[in-house]
Known about the structure:
Blueprint (H helix, E strand, L loop, with lengths): L1 H16 L4 E4 L2 E7 L18 E4 L12 E10 L8 E6 L2 E2 L1 E6 L2 E7 L5 E4 L8 E10 L41 E2 L3 E6 L2 E13 L2 E12 L10 E8 L7 E6 L7 H11 L6 E8 L15 E7 L2 E7 L4 E3 L5 E3 L2 E3 L1 E6 L10 H13 L4 E4 L6 H10 L2 E5 L10 H18 L5 E5 L24 H14 L4 E3 L28 E2 L10 H4 L13 H9 L4 H6 L8 H24 L8 E4 L22 H9 L3 E7 L4 E8 L5 E10 L4 E8 L3 E9 L4 E8 L5 E9 L6 H5 L1
Helix pairs in contact: 3-4, 5-6, 10-11
Amino acid sequence: MRILILLLITMVSLVANSFYPKSTPLDGTWHYHINHEPQAVNYQYNFQGNEPTMTLPNNWYKEGVNHAGVMWFERTFKSVDLPKAKRHFIEFKGVDYLCDIWVNEHYIGSHKGYFQTFDFDITPYLKSGTNTIKVKVDSPLENYPEHYSLHKTLLRGIFAHHDTRPGGAWSAEGQDKNSGGIWNSVTIKSYQEHKLEALKVTPTVNEAQVNLDVTFSLQQLEQRLFSFGEKVEVMVTPANFEGESFKKSLNLRSMGIPAHEKEACESQRGQECPRYRVAMSLPNAKLWQTYDRGFPYLYNVSITIGDMKQIIQTGFKELKQLENEMHTLNGEVIYLKGTNYISSQYMSEMDEKALRKDLELMKAAHINTIRVHAHVEPHRFYQLCDEMGFLVWQDYNLQWGYSESEAFEAEALKQAYEMVDMLYNHPSIYIWSMHNEPPWNSDWMKWKYPDYNAEQNKRLDDMLYEKISSYDSYHLSKKLSSNLEHPWFGWYSGKYQDFVKPSKVPVITEYGAQAIPNKESLRKFVPDKYLHPKGAKAKKHWEYHNFQFNWSEKNGVKFKDTLSNFIHDSQTYQADLIKFATEMLRIQKYNGTTAIFQFMFNEGWPSMNWGVVDYYRQTKPGYEALKKAYAPIILVAKQREDNRIEFYVVNDEIKPITNAKLTIELSNGEKSTHTINTPKDSVYRLGNMKLSKAMGMKLSLKDENGKLITDNQYDFSPITKTKKEDKK
């Protein structure tokens, strides 16, 4: 029996290995050369073989090379290492930012952008024996100091300009520690007759079944008679659970997309669109859910044509946004508890293990939605979000101000299409947001830029929103993440107690405060002589690592005596703000707010900014505050201006609370108990009491068996108004 099982496993493996495409990885050791001086347009560096080496994939800064500009890479491979096939393509999964490629001294193509996967046919240039690949990578700087940050020309989002990157947003060093490089894998993909492209799986949820619309293009690599009568097999099989599989067989001739649909798509995109379509019905298919609402059921969708087989993993969901910006997932209303995320300033260092650790921390903090802030993460991040049941708000690469040239706008649209195509099949994706705080929505820029134009980039954003929402009707689209959605009370404006006021918009995409990491983390990037930020040089070092002394001091946090006290005060302030703001926003659930996103989850480089988790993945008290305030069931006491205390029970669970006991215990010894029955996914307002003097307060909620569900505590003092405030 054991021999039979081994034979069966071997046969299955042989069958799997018989399909194309087949992959030959080129990751590993490459030689590199830095262009320190400008060269002619057609200049090519000729490697001598004694150049230094670098392990790829990698951002070159992570390999100890601090460089902005051109770097050359070269490696060899042997033709015998390639599988027998008719065509070979070299595939890059991420190069930041511009690149040109040569094979055996033959130029094969170029690419612009940092996040896309792209490939080139290298078959005509291969030779028997040793083959050489040469790549010129250019990761340039924007034009500093002529207000580059308002007129950027590169679509790099937070990697080129942001207040959490090296040097910060507004200093002369704001483009330091460049993120350039071949940061993701390089592979040779080998094919026979067919190369399948632009595969998209679009589900429509219809009561007890899912209807799939599968579209793709097919590049015919070898012309053969009757090829369009070839059989196509589509299989849909469970990927992470045991369940029913679905299969459909047909031929290419019967699958063509109507010419008028294809022409309409191509006239909009300016390039070829999918040519073939398969429609399938999947009775009783399982729906993908967020982890807090169920299980993220995933399926493998495979397409087999002859000896070519392509498999993608996806899931089926229906997410809608109602007129009041309330979200429904598979027909049920869902409240989005989110965070802003930049995994790293250098994508190569975030492998699956590192990303999974971050997502586990988010899950433990009850976060169900992640805003990928003004950049695109590695593909492996979205796969993990699919598997672990997170929704993803995906920002495009536009952060603040950009050039208004027609050439830039055309490139921005091209790369926006590429972002949608690359991430389309991930069930975790639910919305595209085109621009974070564009100039036309950011009148604060008039204080920073002499040439500020209140209409800048409006045409760009209108165009992107119109084109992308038309191109992709399955996902939601949003023109911008606006300043109105970023109530920075307690940091850039007002005080954090202002969160007690009704929210002006239902979706809040940024709120928070900075906090200094613990001393152990701080010592890893701050020299001992600068640990006490008193002198000008010490403060400059801290500011380079993103700390904002002016705003911290404005909100009452300043260095007084010891570093330990400074860290404590800073972390306590962030935690207090997060607790208060999150609670005040959550008690407005479905009646004021529908989604909230704390800013920021972690620090993407050794710094001291808005992360509740530092670069070394040490949590701050702000993480625990967020975890407590995002819990599925919370108790909240809200102090009104008339000094009455209101009590709330927020229930995010998909089951009601029945016969629970809420106990309110005051520091003066008074205690009251109330029976709580609330519907599922609701906010229950208990009542209120008069606050006449300073009072401590403990709240606890126990189930009918006496088991603690949740608790909370407060210290309240009566609000006293000045005569000036009374007149207001």
